[in-house]
Amino acid sequence: MLQLRHLSKSYTNGRPVLADLSWHFKAGEFVAIMGDSGVGKSTLLNLIAGLDTPDAGPQAEAAPILVDGIAMSGLDDAAATRLRRERMGFIFQAFHVLPHLTLLQNVALPLLLNGLPQQRASAMLAAVGLGGRDNDFPHQLSGGEMQRVAIARALVHQPALVLADEPTGNLDPDTAHSILTLLRAEIKSTGACAIMVTHSQAAAEMADKVLILTKSGIQETTLVN
Ligand SMILES: Nc1ncnc2c1ncn2[C@@H]1O[C@H](COP(=O)(O)OP(=O)(O)OP(=O)(O)O)[C@@H](O)[C@H]1O
Q1: Where is the ABC transporter domain (predicted)?
Q2: What pLDDT does residue 82 have?
Q3: H/E run at residue 158
Q4: What are 127-172's pLDDT values in tens digits?
Q5: Where are the domains of the chain?
Q6: What is the per-residue pLDDT for 79?
Q7: Probe ligand 1: pick from 7, 39, 165, 211, max atoms within 8 Å of CB?
Q8: How far is the centre of ligand 1, averaged over its atoms, from the C-alpha of 37 (Å)?
Q9: Yes or no: is domain 2-221 CATH 3.40.50.300?
C-alpha cells in the first residue's frame, strides 16, 4: 500500500534526519512507530503525507515514496493535494478541528471536498460516541471528545491510508484506549493502513506491529512489559 524506498531527508543545515529508510506498509495493517525524541518520526509522517519533500539529487532514489504504486515525487502540487484529500486521513495537531464549524460540518469536510454524499458524517460522529451533538461547536468539547471529532473526520471518507501523530497525547488512559479501539475497528473494517507515531507503550500495544525509528534506520520490535 505504502512503500518507502531508500528515503532520506536532511534539512537545509545539511544534518541528515532520515537516512536510507526502506519499508513496506500493507493494507489493513495498524502500525505504530516509536523512537527517541527528535529522531524524525513527525518528519517521516510529513514526508509520507507529501507535506515535506525527501532529499533529491544524483544519489537519491527517484521515487522514494509510493502510495498504491504512485510515486509522490512525480505529482505536481494539485495532484498531491488530490491524492491527500481522496486517499489519506490525518490525525495531526496541525489539522485540528476548525473552531467556527459545527462538529457535523467539521466531520463532513472531507466528504464535501471530495464531492461525496455527506450522510456518513452524522453516522461517523455517532460511531465515535458523539451522536446527537452534530450542531455543537468544538469549544463545547473536552480534549478527548475533540480528538474523537478529529478521528471521525480523518476516517469519514474511508481513506486508504491514515496518518496519526500522537493521537492519544494528553488523553487519559481510558479515553486513549477507547479512541484507539475505534481507530483499529475502522481500519480493520475498511482495509485501510494506519500509521501511528506515539511515545505511549499502551498506544503501541494496540497496533499490529511496532516499528522503532533510530538514527540507523527502522526495524520491527516486540514490546516488553
Ligand atoms: N523544518 C525544519 N527545519 C530544520 N530542522 C527540522 C525541521 N523540522 C524538524 N527538524 C529537525 O529534525 C529532527 C526530527 O524532528 P521530528 O519532529 O521529526 O522528530 P520526532 O521524532 O517526531 O520528535 P518528537 O518525538 O520529539 O516529536 C529534529 O532534530 C528537528 O529539530
Answers
A1: 2-224
A2: 92
A3: none
A4: 888 999 999 999 999 888 888 899 999 999 999 999 999 998 877 8
A5: 2-221
A6: 92
A7: 39
A8: 8
A9: yes
